[in-house]
Design brief:
The chain has one domain. Helix content is 69%, strand content 0%. The chain is built from 15 helices and no strands. The chain has helices at 22-54, 59-69, 73-80, 88-97, 105-118, 125-139, 141-149, 151-172, 177-207, 217-230, 234-241, 247-256, 264-278, 289-303, 312-333. Helix 1 (22-54) runs antiparallel to helix 8, helix 5 runs antiparallel to helix 6 (125-139) and helix 9 (177-207) runs antiparallel to helix 13. The longest helix has 33 residues, at 22-54. The termini are close together.
């Protein structure tokens, strides 16, 4: 990832006297993305581990989707062979400890800590200590031994530490441009992760139509409950849908329910609001206009989706591709990347 030599001064309407150079903005943006990615990975692994213990679903049906959501399917198959998708321990090791896997927990937390260290001056002491503690936990024998002996405890610890860091940012830091960039990264990553996770599960069941799918309604329900747990959405869904679980109701909830903070609608609009603080739409002379316009169009498009979400796979694929393009454009316009495709 190449960066230009010049630094870009960014200002917001809320905090006009304060500026942020592009190097700091870049680290804040990626700190948020890596922290959210680590939390999402831990949630998915914890939920899938519980699903695998039920014994109703084959090991491959449980673990291959996790690798696909992580974007590591081709690499995993090339390194370990096709049969390894049935090996839950191998999949979990890849996504927790493997340094060659760019989305593993150890890589994501390490990258989050490195970005936090680079902008230590804009973070609160509480946030830095929490992220550093999580990093040391993964580097220490205690973390690895907990993963070996009490895997659910391990994933819960990672989730709690990342969630604590996210909460501390909102309660112990100035709500200024630095936090706006962090939260923009968090919300774009959350949008992308939710879309990927839902697409993999929904597409897999759609492909199974006609293959005794209806004969396994109990298994299907278990999988959708696991998906909701992987998005921390089980309790909110049950409260709003009176316990009626189906592919359509789960998909609609995770895409369109603006009350749920991990839904695509909520996360995408929150990302737009943060970006609008950083780069107000009316200030046409400031850089970042293309990325802001792209995000505004995607936000409006998702908000206008018809009921029933026809062609859900197409909708989710478009959201994943567009959030990736938006992040790359932000990199080119605001963060100093010479090649925005590398953002």
């Amino acid at each position: 990832m190449k960066r230009t030599a010049t630094n870009l001064l960014l200002r917001t309407q809320r905090h006009a006297p304060a500026g942020l150079i592009s190097r700091v903005a870049d680290c804040c943006f990626w700190f948020g993305r890596y922290l959210e990615r680590a939390e999402s990975t831990a949630r998915q692994l914890q939920a899938t581990s519980s699903l695998a213990l039920d014994g109703e679903l084959g090991a491959r049906q449980c673990w291959q989707p996790v690798v696909i959501v992580a974007g590591e399917e081709e690499s995993f198959r090339a390194r370990f062979g096709d049969e390894a998708f049935s090996d839950g321990d191998k999949v979990q090791y890849l996504l927790v400890w493997d340094e060659q896997c760019w989305v593993s927990l150890v890589r994501s937390v390490g990258a989050a800590r490195e970005n936090a260290r680079s902008v230590r001056e804009v973070l609160s002491g509480d946030v830095w200590e929490t992220v550093n503690e999580l990093y040391l936990y993964l580097q220490d024998d205690l973390g690895r031994q907990t993963w070996l002996d009490r895997r659910d405890d391990f994933y819960r610890r990672v989730r709690q530490m990342t969630q604590l860091a996210l909460g501390l940012m909102r309660s112990t830091m100035l709500h200024d441009t630095a936090l706006d960039f962090i939260w923009l990264g968090v919300m774009l990553e959350r949008t992308n992760q939710t879309a990927r996770l839902l697409d993999v599960h929904h597409h897999a069941f759609a492909a199974a139509e006609g293959q005794e799918r209806r004969a396994h309604q109990v298994i299907e329900t278990a999988v959708w409950l696991t998906l909701l747990r992987a998005c921390s959405g089980l309790e909110p869904f049950m409260k709003s849908h009176s316990g009626r679980v189906s592919p359509d109701t789960v998909a609609t909830f995770l895409v369109t329910d603006a009350r749920f903070p991990r839904s695509i609608t909520y996360s995408l609009h929150a990302a737009y609001e943060r970006f609008a603080y950083i780069r107000p739409p009316e200030d046409i002379g400031l850089p970042g206009g293309d990325a802001l316009a792209m995000l505004a169009r995607l936000d409006a498009w998702v908000a206008s989706l018809p009921e029933g979400l026809p062609d859900l796979h197409g909708i989710l694929t478009y959201i994943v591709n567009e959030t990736t393009r938006i992040a790359a454009t932000i990199g080119g316009e605001l963060l100093g990347y010479q090649d925005s495709s590398q953002a």
